[in-house]
Design goal:
By secondary structure, this protein is an alpha/beta fold. The protein is built from 14 helices and 23 strands. It folds into 2 domains: 301 residues, Rossmann fold, CATH 3.40.50.720; 113 residues, Nuclear Transport Factor 2, Chain: A (Roll). The two termini are 41 Å apart.
């Protein structure tokens, strides 16, 4: 299928485009810079230089395409979210961008599906009562642009009395996972002992593991999902208090100091009302019309997955690592942390890790181990990996705790052909 994607280099786009390409689709992706051109080409997409607000140019770009993902957004930095003016470009991308795409799609005639990821923070506060897309959204100045984008997508579907055209809006919860910059910000706050999210602690926060949202976007296109609005959230919503507990556990703390709500009001300004509601949202409508099943049922589990703090707690600050990825060596825990963050960001969902044939030798304050370790999982591009590594680790007892001071991962090399051998098994 020939697919046109806006916002292809954003958080959603970077995860979605490789999976579309891996599924055999021909992907055209909007790009505005040479750097983004290179990124998209490396992901297997065809970069397209076009102005989303130039209607005639959009018509030309859409010619021959069968589906559109409108992912383009411009979310302001955390410290600017309270300024209404900081959201104006994002509003224009959502509202006017959706309208232009719909008009162009109707004009070219080949597009049969438009999918738009909206967001779930537009319902009235419901306490602990369940909500879904059948509830009426709150049309405030800070939310109206995404509601109008949904309406444009609905008009695309309604324009065809034969119902061959589909317009689907997926209202997403707050994204979390290793690919989401905001997740690292929240974990960074948590490492400092701070919990920062506005609203009552007993109120519910709609969240969604990023890779589960990507799967929903894919299934909305490839399965017979009817036109309409659906909520894409975890199976089991959690409260702010439960989220703070999960964050504390993820960084090895017993609890967090939650910032006073008055301070959060000042920090979030115009967005406070949107972010502080209690939204216990159900994903039942989308599950009823698709095969979608979230791999991460709730944020209590999700914030602990790919727990970088848990991993780094095993290493001494001065660790020296010889890893299977460049450079020749990593010196210091901070440098090695980046490697683990890249690994976590490369996989969908959880990563399988097994240790086999473990041998341990222990002295008074020095120990070493060697083993054969297996890593398995599904990469973000949809490819499955199942790799065996040779693992050697040196420990030193520091202040009564065994910490890794040196470690080496390796795989055999075919010297004749200059290639690593990745398919060996014990």
């Amino acid at each position: 299928m020939k697919i046109f994607v806006t916002g292809a280099t954003g958080v959603l786009g970077k995860a979605l485009v490789p999976r579309l390409v891996a599924a055999g689709h021909n992907v055209s992706a909007m790009s505005r810079t040479a750097e983004n051109d290179e990124r998209l080409q490396s992901a297997g997409a065809h970069p397209v230089r076009v102005d989303l607000f130039d209607g005639e140019a959009i018509k030309q770009a859409l010619a021959g395409h069968e589906a559109i993902y409108h992912l383009a957004t411009k979310i302001p930095p955390t410290m600017q979210v309270g300024r209404r003016s900081a959201w104006l470009e994002n509003d224009r991308l959502r509202r006017d961008g959706a309208r232009n795409l719909v008009e162009a799609a109707l004009a070219v005639g080949t597009v049969h599906t438009i999918i738009y990821p909206s967001f779930d923070f537009l319902y009235p506060s419901s306490g602990d009562a369940w909500l879904d897309a059948q509830a009426t959204p709150v049309k405030t100045a800070t939310i109206i642009s995404t509601v109008e984008a949904e309406e444009a997508v609905a008009r695309f579907a309604e324009s065809d009395p034969t119902k061959q055209r589909r317009g689907i809006s997926l209202r997403m919860g707050a994204f979390y996972g290793p690919e989401v910059p905001g997740s690292w910000e929240m974990l960074d706050y948590a490492r400092k002992g701070i919990g920062a999210f506005p609203g009552p602690h007993a109120g519910y926060v709609p969240q969604i593991w990023l890779q589960d949202s990507i799967t929903a976007l894919l299934l909305a296109l490839t399965e017979s999902v009817p036109s309409g609005i659906y909520d894409i959230v975890d199976d089991e919503p959690v409260t702010r208090a439960e989220t703070f507990t999960a964050l504390a556990h993820a960084v090895g703390r017993k609890h967090l100091l939650v910032l006073p709500d008055l301070l959060m009001r000042l920090m979030t300004g115009a967005k406070y009302a949107d972010m502080s509601r209690s939204l216990r949202i159900s994903n039942r409508l989308f599950k009823a019309v698709s095969s979608w099943q979230p791999t991460v049922p709730n944020a209590r589990i999700g914030w602990d997955l790919k727990n970088i703090e848990g991993v780094m707690s095993l290493y001494a600050p001065e660790v020296v690592s010889f890893d299977i990825v460049p450079p020749l060596r990593y010196v210091g825990a901070d440098a090695f942390r980046n490697v683990w963050e890249e690994v976590f960001s490369s996989f969908q969902g959880s990563i399988g890790y097994e240790i086999h044939d473990l041998n341990i030798t222990v002295g008074d304050d020095v120990a070493f181990t060697h083993s054969l370790n297996r890593i398995s999982g599904t990469m973000n591009n949809g490819l499955k990996t199942d790799l065996w590594l040779r693992w050697t680790v040196c420990f030193r007892k520091i202040n009564g705790k065994w910490l890794i001071v040196h470690h080496q991962n390796s795989v055999p090399v075919d010297l004749q052909h200059g290639k690593a051998v990745l398919d060996l098994k014990p």
